[in-house]
Amino acid sequence: MERIIIFDTTLRDGEQAPGFSMNTPEKLEMARQLARLNVDVIEAGFPISSDEDFAAVREVARQVGTLPGAPVICGLSRVGLMDIDRAWEAVKHAQRPRIHTFVATSDIHLKYKLRKSRAEVLAAAVEAVKHARGYCEDVEFSPEDASRSDFDYMCDVLEAVIDAGARTINIPDTVGYAIPREWGERIARIRERVRNSAQAVLSVHCHNDLGQAVANSLVAIQNGARQIECTINGIGERAGNASLEEVVMALKTRTDYFGVDTQVRTEEIFRSSRLLSHITGVHVQPNKAIVGENAFAHEAGIHQDGVLKEKLTYEIMRPQDIGREANKLVMGKHSGRRALAARLKDLGFELDEAELGKAFKRFKDLADKKKDIFDEDLMTIVKDEIAQVPETYALDYLHSISGTGVIPSATVRLRKDQEVFQDSGAGDGPVDAVLNAIDAITGLKGRLQDYQLRAITGGKDAIGEVSVKVDFDGTVVTGKGSSTDVIEASARAYVNALNRLVHPAGGQKLKEVGP
Ligand code: KIV
Ligand code: ZN
Questions:
Q1: Closest residue (by CA) to atom 8 of ligand 1?
Q2: Ligand 1 atom 2: the closest Cα is on which residue?
């Protein structure tokens, strides 16, 4: 069976969407999971867009791109030669580096954005590909806004860049404008019209503005595309990109129809989806295909009856195929440090001794409060405890009072560099009071832009996970925290956001570079 190349752009197109920004340690954690998922290519970022993005791509190349059997690590660049140099500097550490260069080919973009003639853009594309080929063999080219580009002109550009050495030709539906049948025909026509098309892998990159990204990706495969660019949970600019899990599971579930497969380890899909949600604080809607909370839940009586008699009646995929087991009771009050380390290793976390010590303490505290501890609980505390940013401030103590007819108030103690600071605050509710107390200690005034609380498992004693987005005088940072006490979880999330603010790489970066 022919294999489709899965090109994951969660860390580039996904990450550039507002609210999905990730710092370097977060990108690294996600990249490690993408490697476990066994994607073929990780597009790790757009190195020239900021120093932070450059560093993130370089670290992914160094630390993930050198693992045994590592995926290709790719960096995006415009056609400017300095962009390409910067992309190369970032990806060169990987065993298999790729430079992905792009320029718009639609008249709309040429006239209003680039202010260049068709001939100038063609020349720049060829020069860029030749320059990139000077660094590495694996060079990809994309004619941005391909779905609205003049067909013949775009094909002339493609022919020229293949002659210049591009080994992958990626056709983006940048604005999510294409409709499946028309898109399939366009892909087939490109193969016929571009004289040297057989010398390059044909790829598509579909956006979801009209909700067609996955359908367009699949129809492209039927018409000869052999690489699909996609993201976990379908995140990406505006309405997002084609969702990796939907493309991969469609190909797997309907091999009878498509006759192709991928090398993705589908049992890692669920974990990848949840890790991304945890990192970004953005959860998928319950009815999201494949990874939504309800994707395998049968509610209607007639369905439940059918499934109990024979799963095949209403189930076209098994939850296990995407690594989604029923909540498993895994650990108890008496489990030891080694058992915790072993379970965490199974879940994909390899901790050093100091990290394990912190995670174990948190686990014991949790076991005192919560009867049953599930994998999800362990994943939450370990991600909470193993800070992705240096812990400049740490929550030391919290006391809050609220109730009917009482003005909510709180006292908080924070630790910073061995010193302990305490203050108190009042507010509209207990969360407001706690955050005001924290502001009083730090002297920084945060404005809460978003606050989400989610129970990690069922049960009244479930861990609550809080995600916050806070605006500190124009710098927006996100934070997460968890606890069986939701007020404490809120304080932890806010302190986590503070730590991102005070750490140079933590704040949301402003990407000033546009195509
Ligand atoms: O949507 C788009 O056109 C892109 C390109 C850079 C491939 O993301
Ligand atoms: Zn895109």
A1: 13
A2: 174
Mean pLDDT of 325-347: 74
What does the radius of gyration of the chain's CA atoms come to, in whole angstroms? 25
Element (H, E) at 480: strand 475-483
User: Which protein residues touch ligand 1 with a CB less than 6 Å away?
Assistant: 13, 76, 102, 142, 144, 172, 174, 205, 207
For residue 142, the ligand 1 atom closest to its alpha carbon is: 7
**What protein residues have CB closer than 5 angstroms to ion ligand 2?**
13
User: Looking at ligand 1, which atom is closest to the CA of residue 144?
Assistant: 3
Integer angstrom CA distances of residue 183 from 135, 173, 254: 33, 9, 21
User: What is the pLDDT, as a whole number, of residue 379?
Assistant: 82
For atom 4 of ligand 1, which residue has the closest CA?
Answer: 174
Q: What does each C-alpha distance from 307 to 293, 324, 325, 416 come to in angstroms?
A: 18, 17, 17, 55
Q: Which residues pair with 139 in a beta bridge?
A: 99
Contact 165, 130 (CB under 8 A): yes
* Superfamily of structural domain 393-509: Alpha-isopropylmalate synthase LeuA, regulatory domain (3.30.160.270)
Structure confidence by residue, pLDDT tens digits, 374-405: 877 888 888 777 666 788 999 999 999 999 99
Output the CA torsion 217→263→30→94 (10° steps).
Answer: -100
Q: How far is CA 304 from CA 320, 327, 473, in A?
A: 18, 19, 52
pLDDT tens figures, 131-175: 999 999 999 999 999 999 999 999 999 999 999 999 999 999 999
Q: How far is CA 115 from CA 84, 109, 121, 149, 439, in A?
A: 21, 8, 10, 15, 48
Enter the CATH code of domain 2-280.
3.20.20.70
40 CA distance to ligand 2 centroid (A)? Answer: 18
- Among 398, 384, 413, smallest CA distance to 496 is for 384
Domain positions in the chain are 2-280, 297-385, 393-509
Answer yes or no: are the C-beta atoms of 336 and 24 closer than 8 Å: no
Ligand 2: distance of its center to the CA of 231 in Å?
A: 10
